């Protein structure tokens, strides 16, 4: 509205203060006790009018010089490892949603170094292009070579004509999920955007249904997912 000329004080009253930006810690305290790592992807794009646009938090962080002080606070996360080190981990990370899983894998690697037995680790990751968004790619491959990561399911949706998503990679390895999740009492974690939650949950329900049928049982997959939620074996951190 070109005729509107609010004063500065009126604008300040109308506009809400910026909310703090929360990032998942991407490192294990056992491995780096005096520092934390964050997985941050700089947000920038061009709008329909050709103007450059930027994410406020990522542009601020990107502009900091080495050693610059920043104000932070730490809050508890819903992402917690199972109490048993032998409980398998099934993790699905979308984009920067891989952050807590790097911490998980580091912790499992540290446990193995200490001679503590560890369960299988299934990591599914999803992004658009491998060339631009293979976040921690070399690390994951090194952990796989070292026997920490048991299965690495990579879904780069735009790298081929047919779009491949994280739920597709999970469905391709349904037998592995059944074994780790249902037979070995593993825990499932999803971190990232909200949009794949229904599709990923459908794959888990399918695994439950197939497993029950193979055992000659009848179960309600949705009720089973609710039970797994209560047992902290189905954990979501989505935004």
Automatic annotation (TrEMBL):
Residues 93-193 form the Oxidoreductase FAD/NAD(P)-binding domain. This is Sulfite reductase [NADPH] flavoprotein component. Residues 1-60 form the Sulfite reductase [NADPH] flavoprotein alpha-component-like FAD-binding domain. One of its GO terms (cellular component) is cytosol. Transmembrane segments: none annotated. Keywords: FAD, Flavoprotein. Its cofactor is FAD. It comes from Cryomyces minteri. One of its GO terms (molecular function) is FMN binding. InterPro entries: CysJ-like_FAD-binding (IPR003097), Flavoprot_Pyr_Nucl_cyt_Rdtase (IPR001709), FNR_nucleotide-bd (IPR039261), OxRdtase_FAD/NAD-bd (IPR001433), Riboflavin_synthase-like_b-brl (IPR017938).
């Amino acid at each position: 509205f070109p005729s509107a000329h609010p004063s500065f004080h009126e604008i300040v009253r109308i506009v809400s203060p910026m909310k703090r930006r929360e990032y998942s810690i991407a490192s294990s305290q056992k491995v780096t006790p005096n520092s934390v790592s964050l997985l941050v992807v700089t947000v920038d794009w061009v709008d329909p009018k050709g103007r450059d646009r930027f994410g406020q938090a990522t542009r601020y962080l990107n502009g900091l010089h080495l050693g610059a002080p920043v104000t932070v606070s730490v809050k508890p996360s819903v992402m917690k490892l199972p109490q048993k080190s032998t409980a398998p981990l099934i993790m699905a990370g979308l984009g920067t949603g891989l952050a807590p899983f790097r911490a998980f894998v580091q912790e499992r690697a540290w446990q193995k170094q200490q001679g503590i037995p560890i369960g299988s680790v299934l990591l599914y990751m999803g992004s658009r292009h491998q060339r631009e968004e293979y976040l921690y790619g070399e690390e994951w491959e090194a952990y796989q070579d070292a026997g920490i990561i048991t299965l690495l399911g990579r879904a780069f949706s735009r790298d081929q004509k047919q779009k491949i998503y994280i739920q597709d990679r999970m469905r391709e390895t349904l037998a592995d999920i059944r074994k780790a999740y249902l037979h070995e009492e593993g825990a499932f974690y999803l971190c990232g955007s909200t949009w794949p939650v229904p599709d990923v949950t459908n794959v888990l329900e399918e695994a439950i249904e197939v497993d029950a049928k193979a055992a000659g049982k009848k179960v309600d997959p949705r009720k089973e997912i609710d039970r797994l939620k209560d047992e902290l074996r189905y954990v979501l951190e989505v935004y």
